Amino acid sequence: MIQMLCAPGVPGLLVGLAIFLFLWLRASLSVKGETFLFEPRGPGSFEPLLQRYTLLAQFIIGLATGSIVLLAGSSVFKSGGRLPWQYASPLVLLSLSVIYGVCFMGLLLYNYESFLHNQIYTRVAYTRNTALGFSSLFCFAIGYLWLAFRLADH
Known about the structure:
The chain has a domain at about 50-154. Helix content is about 75%, strand content about 5%. It has helices at about 1-5, 10-30, 45-75, 90-115, 125-154, and strands spanning about 35, 120.
């Protein structure tokens, strides 16, 4: 069991999952109410926010995927075409940042579209979307810092 936890990338995976679970729990405990409105200020009032959320998520996803591609691509030219195992956890965190960001955008758009068709925006959906959005941001930041320390160490 301990050997599996020490496998390349597993610490990054555990950190990424812990970030998501912590943020979802924190959001669930701090948010009051069972249902939420996307447009408390009237029809169309959420669309400017939706655009900003989507642009931020796209920006984070672009930086994370670009970093993954550059680092993986650079490994072709050295060390026998393989990255050192120490890079696995930061790369997993950057990958989770992308996954959380894509899920955030997809589910937020789905929930908003459902809301426009008179579906209820539930507490579970609200807290999940909040956790996904912030998890994408935190996994990106922590993954990038972790990667910077690993790169500086070599």
